[in-house]
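Prompt: I keep going back and forth on a fold encoding question. Comparing notes only helps if you start from a blank page. Show me how you would write down a chain together with its backbone fold. Please set it down just below, with no commentary around it:
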Amino acid sequence: MALLETTDGTPEGAVATPTEKTPGSLAQRRRSALPPSLLVGATLFALIVILLVLAPWLEPHPPAAQDITARLTAFSAEHPLGTDHLGRDVLSRLLDGGRFSMTIALITLIICAVTGTLVGFLAARLGGVLDTLVMRTTDVLIAFPEMVVALFLVAALGTSDLTLVLALCIGGWTPFCRLARIVAMEINGQDFIEAALALGCSTWFIIRRHVLPNALPPLLAHAALRFGHKLITVGALSYLGLGVQPPSSDWGAMLAEAVPYLDRAPLLVVAPGAAIFLAALSVTLVGRGLQIRQTRRDS
C-alpha cells in the first residue's frame, strides 16, 4: 500500500528531519571555533614577522647610512618615515631594529620556556627535597627585578647581547616552572599516570608521553603572553643603554635617541613606540585567544 503524503511531501507517519541545529552541535561548534582575539593577534603577528623577514628588501636605505644634510626631515617619498638626528632613514632602522628585538625576545623565551617547564615537571614528578628546593629558588629569583639583574651583569660582564640574554633568562624561567609544576601535579593524580607507574615506566617516559602532551596547551598560551613581556623588557633595557650598541639599532635604542628631539620630530618617538606596542599586542591577543579556546574545551 502506498504511503499517504502530507502537504510538504513527507510520507505520512515518517519523522521529518529537523533543519535547525541541535543545541549539542551548536555548543560543539562554539568550542571548536577560533576566538576573534586569536585570529586578530595571529594575523597582526604574521604581518609583522613578514615585514621583518623581508626587511633587507624593504629598507629604502642602509640602516646605518648617515646624511647630516637631511637630518630630522619629515616623511617623504625618499624617506617614508623621515630621518633621525644623524640623517638616517627611520623606516630602515625600524625594520632592522625590529629583527634584533624580536630575535632576542624569541631566543630568551625559548630558553626560559624549555628550562622552566622541564624543572617544573621534574619537581612535580619527584617531589620531596627537589620540589622544595625548586620552589624556594623561584621565590628568591622572582624577588629580583630583571632590570636590577641586568645592571649587575653589565657591571660584571660589560654590555653585550649575551649579557642581555642572561639578564632576561636568569629569572625568566620561574613563571614557566610554577605553571608547569601546577599542571603536572594535577596530571599526576590521573589514573593513566598510576597505570604507567604500575607498568614500570620511567620518569622521563611519563613526562614525555603523558605529562607534556596534556600540559602543552596552557604552556603555549602562557608562552605567548610572556613573549610580549620579553619584548617590552628588551626595549626597556635598550632604552637604558643595556641592549644593542651603536651603530646597530633596536626599538628601545631608537626611543632613547629620539627623546631629545621630541618637540622637533615627534615621529621619531611614535614609530618605535608603535612598533613595540603592536608587536606586544599581537602576541598578547594570541595568548589570550589560546586561553579562551582552552577554557571552552574544558567546559
Remarks:
- Residues 90-126 form the longest helix (37 residues).
- The radius of gyration is 27 Å.
